[in-house]
Amino acid sequence: MMVESATETIRTTPSNQNGVSSLSSQSDSGGREGGSNGDTNGEISPVDLLHLQQQQALQAARQFLLQQATGLSSPSSNEVKQAPVQVPVSMAMMTPQMITPQQMQQILSPPQLQALLQQQQALMLQQLQEYYKKQQEQLHLQLLTQQQQAGKQAKEQQLGNKQLAFQQQLIQMQQLQQQHLLNLQRQGLVSLQPGQGTVAMPALQQAMCPADLQQLWKDVAGVPSTEDAMKHEGLDLSTTSSNSTSYSASKVSPQITHHSLPNGQSSIHTPKRDRARLFEWISSFSKAEPADEHLMPHSKGGYLQNTHSSHEEHTATHPLYGHGECKWPGCEALCEDMGQFIKHLNSEHALDDRSTAQCRVQMQVVQQLEIQLAKESERLQAMMTHLHMRPSEPKPFSQPLNLASNASILKRESDAYPEGLPHPPTSAAAPITPLRQGPSVISSSGLHGVGPIRRRNSDKFCTPIASELAQNCEFYKNADVRPPFTYASLIRHAILEAPDRQLTLNEIYNWFTRMFAYFRRNTATWKNAVRHNLSLHKCFVRVENVKGAVWTVDEVEYQKRRPPKMTGSPTLVKNMISGLGFGSLNASYQAALAESSLSLLNSPTMVNTSTGGSLNMMHVGHDDVSSTVEQVNSNGSCSPGLSPQQYGHQVHVKEEPAEMEEDSRPVSLMAKVSQNLVLPGDEREIEEDLPTEDLE
DNA sequence: TTAATAATAAACAGGA
DNA sequence: ATCCTGTTTATTATTA
User: Fold this and answer.
1) In the complex, which nucleotide's C1' lies nearest to the CA atom of residue A455?
2) C-alpha dihedral over A453, A458, A464, A467, to 10 degrees?
3) Pairing relationship of beta strands A548-553 and A540-545 according to DSSP bridges
4) Same domain, A469 and A557
5) Which end of chain A is more exposed for a tag (fewer CB within 10 A), N or C?
6) What span is annotated as the signal peptide, if there is one (predicted)?
């Protein structure tokens, strides 16, 4: 299901590229495959299923991460010129049957790649979880049966042994499952960038809810008691088994158990080998850490290292020690001083299975929290966006709009945003793209990563440049990928990002090189293009300054030069709306839209007379959703009442009231409308795919 | 097929 | 003379 939605994106890839048709067919089948697998989960061997999906996801993931790694492994200083990492693109060489992850990566925009990966991984994890759950239940059932039978037989020792075996199996399952999950994370999710990380790892969230984690902690903490009990051969099954069961019920355990534990012997009983493995496991994280550090400064690896090298540090403070007690999860042992704590740490939390398992869990907790943070951040952003543009947006045509329709707009948007799906980061900002010309962004972003290219699509209607940039800032900074934006939109963005919304040519250059690795080469080419754009487009206004000339943006002009195709009569607008497949769109809303576009047509003077905030806000708002947010970022002065002067002087500098926006307004409206409309639609699709996404 | 748009290349001018 | 900035024209590709 999720896979399908991901491939859906691919399927709609533009038909102008050689490999596209092949892509469609390929992804189509892939989508079906994934879907059917998901449905027949119970029938097909889960291992096969996982394998298949893992391969799909990981293949893409690997490629993506590779790209990231190459971009990020080099000194990440913005100014450092990076060796261009270019992926030779030859779509023509693509055979219909062969879509390499590389090509996928090139076709998909970073956010889309992320979305795809996340969806696939989410799917995998979900299915994994389901499968594990089944296994767990089965096992538990068996255990109970055994208990009953054993009870009847009244053979205490045998019972003990059997139960012990199951117990061990349970524990092993837990561990393996955790490891499995973590492996998946590591392969696909761990190294995502912070910005992108905000949308990453929903999969884990699906696999675990906070309550699970809590329970998990208890259970993992409970492991030692089992261990001890087993050592004494006098285990208290009633407690331990229930513990483990409750854990496993929510967590699951793998069938894989059987091959790692052929005779049901717990790893606890083979400490040497396992410790070696554990150590290896842990060090793998420690080693992996440096590379990822700048991506996830708060990464768990550091934590792990801290934990395990703590005895060497002996500093006055210890992250695991506070208020006189050990802060090791689930420990809370009282330690009078640091020395005692260290002692306790070394004795109780040495490198063993339990500690490692707890570490794993802690990692998951951290990731869980990161996910939560990401979701909340996104929600905040959506809220800000919403509050930002709403009050101003309806103004120009507030009369014709009744409250109800306004409310419906509001609702749609607010419904759409907070979901915090992996996809939305970009799609939320570029809602129009997926449906109307969905793939355009995709194709433009990576398809021709090198050389002279034509790409402008994302700029077509509502440029999601701000949010896209915000989301993938790091990506573009480091990856030698051409940003899928027009020069004009980039320049505009650069200028608007400036504190006083004006930049010299050189500053614009610097912004380009700072923000995009791609523009750190071929400087002559793109600089010429920048100059060309500045001169050519009326939306860029040159203002003589004391110290030279600066460039500003005339938002009105910028909006004017927007796609002419979408302009037209309200009927057209209406038709388009219905044509977009929003059958469910309520009629009054449509009418209101049409009407509002009319009112816009009829009141072109508003544009000029009202240099006030509302006008500007409208433009800003409609242009790209997050540009309002972006203003918050760029200069703290941004507020719902964005000072008109900020645009005001620019508007005045170069004003051509005569030729009015007979078309620009409807365009703006359309863009706005599309955002409001497509989002929900987009949302619906994804919602079906990720039913458990939104957990709260 | 056509028109609009964008990217690219390049010629050119003026100023520092 | 050279570089930077800015304007303009031409060509080509893409898209609707």
Assistant:
1) B6
2) -30
3) antiparallel
4) yes
5) C
6) none
Q: Which of the listed residues A300, A332, A349 is the one where a domain comes to its end?
A: A349
pLDDT of res. A686: 29
- The tokens for A442 are 């995709």
Whether nucleic acid strand C comes within 7 Å of the CB of A445, the answer is no
Which residue, A386, A405, A436, sits at the end of a domain?
A386
- How far is residue A691's CA from residue A684's CA, in Å, rounded to a whole number? 10
Residue A14 contacts strand C, CB under 7 A: yes
Please check whether strand C approaches the CB of A457 to within 7 Å.
Answer: yes
Length of chain A in terms of residues written:
696
More confident residue, A43 or A116: A116
Closest CA to A192 of A107, A67, A108, A74: A67
Assess whether A159 (CB) lies less than 7 A from strand C. Answer: no
Instruction: Name the band, by pLDDT with cuts 50, 70 and 90, for residue A319.
Output: confident
SS3 string of A197-212?
Answer: HCCCCHHHHHHCCHHH
In a domain, A168, yes or no: no
CATH number of the domain at A524, please: 1.10.10.10
In a domain, A454, yes or no: no
pLDDT tens for A612-643 read: 333 332 333 333 333 333 333 333 333 222 33
The gap between A265 CA and B6 C1' (Å) is: 67
CA of A529 to C1' of C9 (A): 14
Q: Mark whether A335 and A382 lie in a shared domain.
A: no
* Strand C and A505 CB separated by under 7 Å: yes
pLDDT per residue over A271-300, tens digit each?
333 444 434 443 443 333 333 323 232 333
